[in-house]
């Protein structure tokens, strides 16, 4: 086997690899764009700093609607304000953990849930139309 | 081996003398007889039934119930050798330390002694119910082999364990009559007489001692047993009935000078599907959902219970919550799990949900009461009527514990809880009972507050004792059989001292 032939084969492999990588990149980009195009997208709201912390806004909205149906009184503006400026500084994770530690649980259709999670869920319900 | 006697063959009018009459051949009576085997004490066990169920004998238990719906008085117990062990579930768990304590927030609470008084007897009681080694809340061996309990972290609820009476051919548990018949026949100082119904405790005219027992058979025979001492071990309902019906010297009934006999009756409410538990990982050890053979000699089941500390701090009674059947969640339930798990940062994609059952301790209530009715049975004994009651606070105690369990599951990021019942109507709609008859001849050092003293002796009657869970002043959430046997073994030690 001559060195030039070896080099020739190496070039073909290099080109094939490069094209392969390009293909993967294009496909990956398509998936990314597809996710952007076809994934869950919500109209912008003034509560997005809170609602974006919910991985599934529809599920949360179901909780929120159930809580409101049980007579809970929720003022989304007031809740959001208190949440943003409260001890958790707008962090749902911190608020949830603090609720659990303090025993601040709210019952929604019998489910024992951290109070702040129910509040943010109620905010989600206020901006999310029922399906 | 000594064959059992049949009361129907005893000539009418006979008087039989013995040292100790054991009235009743259930778990307590049998445990007492075996504990006093090979002592100088001549014993006679008087059992109403025979070896097997008999409808005519069973019908002697019939009575009436008022108040909250309750199991018919002739349905929740069995009247033949072995007593109600012939249909028990085999669940065993010792009483908790707090169960013996006088609690300011719980009226009528307080035993005359602490758990340490029963500790020396638990191993033997455990042996008699054939529940394997006494382990319970030291389950490291089981959990190492079978998987860890569901994490609940720190707090007022914890994983506790039942142990179970021995399993034979998939049938739980030890039936005392069948299991110990041959052992009883080998006891040289014991005569067992079947089909012998004690219809009255006849006191001496001064009401200070038992003079003799009236015995009757369903065939119409009547005769007398004259013991030096007697132990009434007829079960948590019938103990009260016999005392109340024995009213020729003390009009209110034996031991009832202070109107206590039959009061404070209790059972364990067992409402179904009280809650739903979700386990985020979907993995639960096999000892949660049903009795599980952890080894050839150890059958176990886990439950959630409030700690003694939590009970003291929150003023709640005992409860034992068990995981029951797997279920599918509705849309809100699925949303609750998905949203909560995400907020906690845990993966719940394999989550599983189960119903939660429970057994509850109830508040001592003097008006939850057995009384004699005007109706008489085939032997001429007054039948009973039960006024069954259940306080809303008994549900509230359990609700408080469920709230804490739910909080702890979230804190441990292991799962979550739904409380399924909130109103009294909802609780009662799923109500069942443990058939754990307790409290109707309660123990207290003060005769104004109890029927028997700390040695199980009927106050004021020097030679009459009571065995069984009818002497429990408070009821725990634990199942009573193994505990009442431990109490009976303690009584056996006392009788050995005073009779020999």
In short:
Chain A is mostly helical and 131 residues long.
User: Can you give the mean pLDDT of chain A?
Assistant: 78
Helix-strand pattern of chain B:
EEHEHEEHHEHEEEEHEEEHEHEEEHEHEH
Strand content of chain B: 15-25%
**SS elements, strand count of chain A:** 2
The helix/strand class of chain B is: alpha/beta
Low-confidence stretches of chain B: none
Molecular shape of chain B: elongated
Largest interface: A-B, 26 and 26 residues
Largest sheet of chain B: 8 strands, mixed
Question: What's the main sheet of chain A like?
Answer: 2 strands, antiparallel
**Approximate strand percentage of chain A:** 5-15%
Q: Nearest-angstrom radius of gyration of chain A? A: 25 Å
**Principal-axis shape of chain A:** globular
Summarize the helix and strand pattern of chain A as letters: HHHHHEEH
Q: Which radius of gyration of chain B do the C-alpha atoms yield?
A: 23 Å
> What is the share of helical residues of chain B?
10-25%
Coarse structural class of chain A: mainly alpha
Can you put this structure into words, describing what you see?
The complex is a heterodimer of chains A (131) and B (500). Chain A has 6 helices and 2 strands. Chain A is mainly α and 131 residues long. A two-stranded antiparallel ribbon of chain A has the order 1-2. The termini of chain A are far apart. By secondary structure, chain B is α/β, with parallel strands linked by helices. In chain B, the strands form 4 sheets. In chain B, strands 1, 2, 3, 7, 8, 9, 10 and 19 form an 8-stranded mixed beta sheet that branches. A 4-stranded antiparallel beta sheet of chain B has the order 5-6-13-12, with helices on both faces. In chain B, strands 14-15-11-18 form a 4-stranded antiparallel beta sheet, covered by helices on one side. In chain B, α1 runs parallel beside α5, α1 runs parallel beside α11 and α3 crosses α11. Classes of the chains: A mainly alpha (131), B alpha/beta (500). The interface between A and B is medium-sized, with 26 and 26 residues.
């Amino acid at each position: 086997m001559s060195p030039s032939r070896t080099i020739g084969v190496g070039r073909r492999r290099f080109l094939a690899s490069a094209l392969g990588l390009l293909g993967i990149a294009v496909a990956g980009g398509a998936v990314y764009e597809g996710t952007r195009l076809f994934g869950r997208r919500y109209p912008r709201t003034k509560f997005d700093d809170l609602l974006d912390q919910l991985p599934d806004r529809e599920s949360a909205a179901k909780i929120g609607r159930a809580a409101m149906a049980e007579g809970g009184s929720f003022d989304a503006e007031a809740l959001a304000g208190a949440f943003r400026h409260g001890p958790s500084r707008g962090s749902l994770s911190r608020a949830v953990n603090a609720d659990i530690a303090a025993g601040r649980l709210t019952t929604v259709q019998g489910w024992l849930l951290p109070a702040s999670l129910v509040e943010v869920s109620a905010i989600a319900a206020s901006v999310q139309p029922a399906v | 081996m000594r064959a059992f006697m049949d009361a129907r063959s005893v000539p009418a009018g006979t008087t039989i003398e013995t040292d100790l009459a054991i009235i009743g051949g259930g778990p307590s009576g049998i445990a007492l007889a075996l504990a006093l085997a090979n002592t100088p004490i001549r014993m006679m066990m008087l059992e109403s039934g025979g070896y097997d169920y008999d409808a005519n004998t069973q019908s002697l238990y019939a009575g009436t119930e008022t108040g909250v719906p309750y199991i018919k008085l002739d349905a929740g117990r069995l009247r033949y050798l072995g007593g109600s062990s012939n249909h028990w579930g085999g669940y065993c768990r010792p009483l908790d330390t707090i169960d013996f304590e006088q609690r300011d927030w719980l009226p009528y609470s307080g035993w005359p002694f602490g758990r340490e008084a029963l500790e020396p007897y638990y191993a033997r009681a455990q042996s008699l119910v054939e529940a394997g080694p006494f382990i319970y809340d030291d389950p490291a061996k089981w959990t190492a082999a079978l998987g860890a309990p569901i994490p609940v972290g720190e707090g007022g609820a914890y994983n506790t364990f039942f142990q179970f009476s021995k399993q034979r051919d998939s049938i739980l548990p030890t039936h005392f009559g069948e299991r110990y018949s041959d052992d009883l026949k080998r006891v040289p100082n014991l005569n067992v007489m079947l089909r012998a119904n004690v219809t009255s405790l006849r006191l001496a005219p001064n009401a200070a001692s038992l003079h003799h027992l009236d015995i009757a058979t369903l065939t119409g025979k009547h005769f007398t047993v004259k013991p030096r001492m007697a132990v009434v071990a007829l079960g948590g309902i019938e103990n009260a009935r016999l005392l109340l019906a024995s009213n020729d010297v003390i009009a209110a009934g034996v031991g009832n000078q202070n109107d206590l006999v039959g009061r404070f009756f209790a059972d364990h409410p067992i409402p179904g599907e009280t809650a739903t538990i979700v386990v985020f990982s979907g993995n639960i050890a096999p000892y949660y959902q049903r009795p599980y053979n952890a080894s050839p000699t150890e059958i176990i089941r886990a439950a959630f219970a409030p700690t003694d500390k939590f009970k003291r701090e929150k003023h709640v009674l005992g409860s034992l919550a068990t995981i029951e059947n797997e279920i599918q969640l509705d849309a809100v339930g699925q949303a609750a799990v998905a949203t909560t798990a995400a907020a906690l940062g845990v993966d719940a994609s394999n989550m599983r949900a189960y119903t939660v059952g429970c057994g509850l301790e109830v508040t001592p209530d003097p008006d939850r009461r057995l009384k004699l009715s005007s109706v008489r049975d085939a032997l001429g004994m007054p039948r009973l009527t039960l006024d069954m009651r259940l306080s809303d606070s008994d549900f509230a105690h359990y609700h408080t514990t469920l709230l804490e369990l739910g909080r702890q599951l979230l804190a441990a990021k292991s799962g979550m809880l739904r409380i399924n019942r909130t109103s009294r109507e909802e609780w009662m709609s799923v109500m069942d009972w443990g058939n754990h008859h307790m409290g109707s001849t309660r123990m207290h050092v003060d005769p104004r507050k109890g029927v028997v003293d700390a040695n199980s002796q009927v106050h004021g009657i020097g030679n009459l004792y009571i065995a069984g869970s009818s002497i429990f002043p408070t009821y725990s959430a634990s199942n009573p059989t193994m505990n009442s046997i431990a109490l009976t073994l303690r009584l056996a030690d006392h009788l050995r001292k005073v009779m020999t």
